[in-house]
Amino acid sequence: MTKAPPDHATPHQPVQPDEHTAAAVSDTGTTPVWLARRFGPSDWVPNHPTLPVLIYRDAVSLREDADAVARRFERCLAANGWPPQWRDGIYDYHHYHSTAHEVLGCAAGSARVQVGGPDGDVVRLAAGMALLLPAGTGHRRVSASADFMVVGAYPAGQAFDICRSAATPAMLARIAALPFPSCDPIDGAGGRLTRTWHAHG
């Protein structure tokens, strides 16, 4: 999972973008409306063999307080078949999930998050943005504001695990074979996930 422990601490070798994948963005750059980035294996972190990470800049409106923004994320995710599971921060150590894809909707504050493992990119995740991580993708919190909070959700029928060591052959096979969700967690049917993940699958 990505939910932070009580102290609110939070877990690659990037490959070149292909015709379906936008260029990576650093925490010093400006995140576009959305971005797709695929990562190859990084040290012990497998990352996903084909699917890119997606970043959504304006996933929900920020006209309300943090609780209302979180509830807006939760309604959106639930409606699109990604039942929300928790609200919290992000672990500060590298980890990945071998049994579920994950989406993190930022309801408050901001954080610098390393995606893709030890050699991955550091991106800025701020309130209103969302980060979609295919199974196997390493991630960790580098730093965060005191009020940083994300909503974590997973496709219906997928239960997350927390992996902090190299994947076994069985885990790699499970990551590669995990079904695509039927809907984009933010955009719904026909959304960005459908267009990008199905292009890579």
From TrEMBL:
<dbReference type="InterPro" id="IPR014710">
    <property type="entry name" value="RmlC-like_jellyroll"/>
</dbReference>
<dbReference type="InterPro" id="IPR014500">
    <property type="entry name" value="UCP019307_cupin"/>
</dbReference>
<dbReference type="InterPro" id="IPR011051">
    <property type="entry name" value="RmlC_Cupin_sf"/>
</dbReference>
<protein>
    <submittedName>
        <fullName>Uncharacterized protein YjlB</fullName>
    </submittedName>
</protein>
<dbReference type="InterPro" id="IPR047121">
    <property type="entry name" value="YjiB-like"/>
</dbReference>
